[in-house]
Predict the 3D structure of the following.
Amino acid sequence: MLSTIALDTQVLRPGLCTGCGACQGLCPYWGSVDGRTVCFFDCERADGRCQRFCPRMPTDLDVLRKQFFPEDTILPEIGPFLGLYLTRAADESIRSKAQHGGSMTALVELALKEGFIDAAALARSQGGLNPEGVLASTAEEVRACSGSSFQVPPT
Ligand code: SF4
Ligand code: SF4
């Protein structure tokens, strides 16, 4: 199938495009008009970068599984894994605002503090059904994203 048709039928028409801009950044045939992702050219290429990089295209989980996980680490109930841990943040002030244990907030804060990352693309609840995407580069900005957002934000 042509890449543009695959994106159109599996992402754009079903309303799954988040406007992340990946296809637009990769190829001049894609752009944004009035906030909607559109293709400007009848590209005849199959398996192109727009299709492969779009985060909303279906993922071939079997291929990923075989590539990254040994056969004996796959449980039918939960799928593949490399290790299983129960975790929570040691910091009570993180846990008090967490959905569960605050592990993600603690890990992102640590990564910033240790200099492993400059910033993290996170989701911040706005109180309703539409969380917003945030580029957090301080511990305060990370903590403002504590808790879970159950919708896909345009990060
Ligand atoms: S297949 Fe390649 S050239 Fe064609 S629209 Fe997609 S990214 Fe652009
Ligand atoms: S790459 Fe991003 S902007 Fe392009 S179709 Fe997929 S979700 Fe939409």
Remarks:
- Residues 92-143 form one domain.
- Residues 103-113 form the longest helix (11 residues).
- The pocket of iron/sulfur cluster (ligand 1) is lined by residues 3-4, 26-27, 29, 43, 45, 48-50 (CB under 6 Å).
- The mean pLDDT is 91.
